[in-house]
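User: Hey, quick favor. My workstation is busy. Could you predict this chain's structure for me?
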Amino acid sequence: MVNTFLSCCLMLALLGSAAVVHAQGTPIALRDDRGTEHLFPAPPQRIVSLLPSLTESVWALGGGRRLVGVDRYSNWPTELAALPRLGGLDDAQIETIAALKPDVVLASTSARSIDRLEALGFKVLRLKSETHADVRRTLALLATLLGTPAEGDRVWQGIQRDIAAAAERVPPARRGQRVYFEIGGGPYAAGRSSFIGETLTLLGMDNVVPAELGPFPKLNPEFVVRAQPQVVMGVQREQAAMAARPGWQAIPAIAGNQRCGFETPRYEMLIRPGPRVGEAAGVLADCLAGLASTGDTAKPARP
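Assistant: No problem, here it is.
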């Protein structure tokens, strides 16, 4: 009986191993955001990521060990520090990337400097995330690419829970107030149709940049003056300069010092459409709660 039991265990183990091999050997067909079809004979084991949000997504989906190189701006999590830095959107280091022999290169749809990689025969998966729906789709696509499709939904559900929890922390007095979220030092802003704008809406805020202007429109400074936002958000290093802009002293958010200035590490998290969108919602909510209680410029703690 013991021998029979051991034989059954051995058979189950062998069947399990065979199933894993079969799953890993199943071809994966994906279409990127340029409409290009890609066929992978198996989940890639050597991945180069040239966009921080994609790097973070791969990591959150459990594929961090497969990253062999990243762009210069990918800085989360800290474990990435040991990986080769491969340039950016406009100056990707083609020869260095090729030498790493990646199974796939993840990049933005706007990255033109890596066209040569495709000419050399490398698979380049180009993705674009501007909305929450894009973030969810990208997570699902990357999870499928990694051979762990269920992970995409797991990460997305976590984002949803974090956003819902953040919304609960926004003071009722803040809900419905007009908000302006500036990208860098301007003149670009996060519009209502962007993933940042969608998060602000879920937090109960009224974005002064309408959806019809697009996700991240370039604005005339006078537009913001006319919009009269009650809260202004952006990177901390630009906060002092805002008050010096012509006419901006009359903006309620500037006059009343109702500003959320985020230090660079947190600001970078806020503008990356990846797995930390839910955490970013919490940072925004905490800032709004701080403004409501103090009336002063919120200065989120350094990470």
